[in-house]
What does this fold into?
Amino acid sequence: MEPIAQPALDAAIQKLWEKFLPQMEERIATLERADAALAVDALTREQRSAANAAAHKLAGVLGSFGLTRGTILAREAEILYSGEPGTDPAAAAQLRAITAELRLLIAARKAS
Amino acid sequence: MERLKGEPRLAHRILIVDDEDDIREVAALSLETVAGWEVLTASSGAQGLARAAEFQPEAILLDVMMPGMDGPSTFRALRANPATAHIPVLLLTAKVQSNDQRRFADLGVEAVLFKPFDPLTLAAQMAAVLGWS
It folds into this structure.
């Protein structure tokens, strides 16, 4: 396969973004479900583990699609969900804010 | 990274092992289109072991966190098999904590690369580690 220049790479990356967008949005939905459960002090171990995994995956991939800020935010969420966020009242609000910003970033990337 | 016409090029053979299909596809796209390398992929450590033995890649890009056989276990199995023991392995991880980095480096891999990677520079990063110019 002949190597191609950056514009062609960018176009191919955009196609992959569109292909994997539902997967990104499902990871955000996982975080939102965990955030909602945390807000009412009902976060289960399974939800926390799923949120931690979703945040880890987002952190690992968003930057490759140009969303460096998304990787930073997802990494913060991963760290918070790797501990016991239910014991820290500030963590629930912080996680809600992180997830909301992640959703906005992904929506903006989708529209670009 | 545009190449000049007529410039000699080596089509290196790479195996990517990662359970995340988005990461796998972005990495494969990057190495194929930017560097013109031949890429095969595997979605688990076990599949990676089989493909490495069969395909005999010149290097393996191996994810750390995978269900079942994780990256370090896969690396040890690759080293234990005479058919794959010689293949350089680069670990790919989203873990950025320094104790994780030290633990991975101590395994004896060629390098530890970090997610997220830049699709435009991944091949150059790997080539530098592997001494491919």
Notes: The longest helix of chain A spans residues 6-39. Helices of chain A lie at 6-39, 45-61, 68-82, 89-111. Residues 20-111 of chain A form a domain with the Four Helix Bundle (Hemerythrin (Met), subunit A) fold (CATH 1.20.120). The CA atoms of residues 39 and 92 of chain A lie 6 Å apart.
